[in-house]
Write a structure and sequence with these properties.
- This protein has 587 residues and is mostly helical.
- It contains 26 helices and no strands.
- The termini are far apart.
Length: 587
């Protein structure tokens, strides 16, 4: 059975390679007659709006963004001579999309905002759906704000459903599935499959391709590799036959699947193809190719080569202002440095990884505020449509609503500030109590040590049974080993090791700890580790990295350290250290 499965997977690998070979050896497709027709028209009539629209859409789909920008600029200039808000709206939309895809994010946002302003005064639902999708794409790829992206896409989906715009609805569904994939949320599969089925129903090859590739990614995310293989093969076929842009997106998934199968040479070949497709692919796809290739090299213990690729991926991500996958690049870079024992560089990379993640978290407050502004703008627009003849009433309502929103914002900000102050006081109180407890514990330990030194001549136990007196003696010896010898710092500490040190067995050891401390062995050991971490972090002059501290205390992972510390103290180690320094400055 195992051999049959291997044979099936090998056949699938050969099929993928065969399809890619066809793609690589096929000559460039001839330009379609419709394209030639419109290019001829533009030669004689540079202000033909219909041909300009066709050329913008065609080159945008082909990934030739410089030409798309050129013809969109012609459209915008045309509206300067012959004012036409619809043409101007389309010009700004195409400019925004093409500039966003080519890494010119600031000017792209200006054009998308201009298109949004024009769309609010026009009744063209098809363009509005496309615009909402473009804004969602900008939020996901440039801002890495997936919640804002989902909100834009849902807005387009609701409009497309209401107006029965099936193609726009399908494309927005595929975009929604892609955002779910970026969030590593497997529930986006249903949107990808619905987009794929709609593409077949409409006999739209591009929509089918989008649905197929997103379905493949979602199945891969859900670890259903056989289904992912089926859909990616169909997507690759459609991509090859039609010359769709962002081929790196498909190559990356082929690389992932072969990487899972352990076929590193072929996985590497596909990642390299994706890396070369910089001109016609989205930045996020190109960046991921560097990440995927680096991970393949890591599995082959080629960490130095992987570091070079990761740095190139980070440089492209920063140059094109695209935050997607940047946190993964830094996290993987940290792991590479750690494998090479370059711990300081590993720590620096890990800090950058945390900064990228924290930046996403910190934007949550801004989203809350923008949500109120969004609702207000929608309400104001509806009132404007219903009461367009009552300008004075509209103006008064506008001022009232604006005041209402400002009051809410002030209240929300005030509550947030109050909660922050309250939380800060609580944290400072916890730190003070911990520092006082450490002092008391030190004094008690000194007294106990003095008393024990006076009682060194006590008689040994003759009985082999575990009497109450012997149980207490064993527990005291265990406590002494923990507090003075700090055996809990051993990463491989176990009941067998400790019982051997005490001259007893693991059954007696478990019973002693349970009776005397009311804890299991693991919880007992971790209690000492957390207590020691509190003592170290309470010293404001100690700047040991938290990852190094966790390792020194015997934790096998920093996440375990973080979780146990927060459960015990009520805040993370980083927050505790910050509050200690804050108290030190206040003294």
């Amino acid at each position: 059975m195992h051999r049959q499965m291997n044979k099936i997977m090998n056949i699938k690998q050969l099929l993928i390679i065969f399809f890619l070979a066809i793609f690589a050896t096929t000559n460039a497709q001839k330009r379609p007659e419709s394209l030639e027709k419109h290019l001829e028209i533009i030669k004689t009539d540079t202000e033909n709006a219909q041909s300009l629209l066709f050329l913008c859409e065609y080159y945008l789909k082909q990934g030739d963004y410089s030409k798309a920008v050129t013809y969109a600029e012609y459209m915008k200039n045309l509206t300067e001579k012959h004012p036409n808000n619809l043409i101007r709206l389309q010009a700004h939309l195409y400019l925004g999309q093409a500039q966003m895809m080519s890494g010119r994010e600031k000017i792209a946002r200006k054009n998308l905002d201009a298109a949004l302003d024009l769309a609010s005064h026009q009744d063209n639902d098809t363009i509005r759906c496309t615009l909402y999708g473009a804004l969602g794409q900008y939020s996901a790829n440039i801002d890495a704000d997936y919640y804002q992206a989902i909100r834009w896409v849902y807005k387009g989906i609701e409009l497309a459903q209401h107006k029965h715009l099936h193609r726009q609805y399908g494309m927005l569904l595929s975009q929604l599935a892609n955002i779910h994939y970026l969030k590593r949320d497997g529930s986006g599969l249903k949107y990808a499959l619905e987009s794929y089925e709609l593409g077949h129903q409409l006999k739209d090859s591009y929509l089918t391709y989008l649905g197929a590739i997103q379905s493949a990614y979602m199945y891969f995310l859900n670890k259903q590799h056989e289904q992912a293989m089926n859909y990616v093969q169909e997507a690759e076929n459609l991509m090859t036959n039609n010359g769709f842009y962002d081929q790196a997106h498909t190559f990356n998934l082929l690389g992932k699947l072969l990487e899972e199968l352990g076929n590193y040479p072929q996985a590497t070949a596909y990642y390299q193809k994706a890396m070369k497709d910089k001109q016609t692919s989205q930045t996020a796809s190109v960046v991921y190719a560097y990440l995927g290739y680096a991970r393949v090299l890591m599995k082959q213990q080629k960490h130095t080569e992987a570091i070079g690729l990761l740095k190139q991926g980070i440089a492209i991500s920063q140059a094109r202002t695209n935050a997607v996958h940047r946190n993964e690049l830094y996290e993987t870079l940290s792991l590479c440095y750690e494998e090479l024992n370059r711990y300081q560089e590993a720590l620096n990379a890990y800090k950058q990884f945390r900064i990228e993640n924290d930046s996403l978290f910190n934007e949550h407050k801004e989203r809350d505020l923008s949500e109120m502004r969004y609702r207000y703008d929608m309400e104001r627009q509806e009132n404007h449509i219903k009461q367009n003849k009552l300008e004075m009433m509209q103006q008064e309502q506008y001022v009232q609503q604006l005041s209402y929103i400002l009051v809410i914002i002030v209240i929300v900000l005030g509550l947030q500030y109050y909660m922050y102050r309250r939380k800060n006081k609580l944290y400072l109180s916890i730190v003070k109590q911990s520092q006082e407890a450490i002092k008391r514990e030190t004094e008690l330990n000194q007294r106990i040590h003095t008393l024990e030194s006076q009682d060194q001549g006590s008689a040994k136990y003759a009985s082999s049974s575990l009497t109450d007196e012997k149980s207490q003696d064993l527990f005291h010896r265990l406590e002494r080993m923990m507090r003075e010898e700090k055996i809990y710092k051993d990463h491989t500490i176990s009941k067998d090791k400790v019982s051997e040190l005490l001259g007893t067995n693991r059954t007696y050891l478990s019973r002693i700890i349970n009776e005397q401390a009311q804890l299991s062995f693991t919880h007992y050991v971790n209690r000492f580790r957390i207590e020691e971490s509190i003592r170290i972090l309470s010293d404001s002059s100690n700047d040991i990295p938290l990852k190094a501290l966790a390792s020194e205390l015997g934790f096998n992972s920093i996440s375990t350290f973080y979780n146990l510390f927060q459960a015990s103290v009520g805040m993370t180690p980083a927050q505790y250290r910050s509050k200690v320094k804050e108290l030190e400055k206040a003294r």
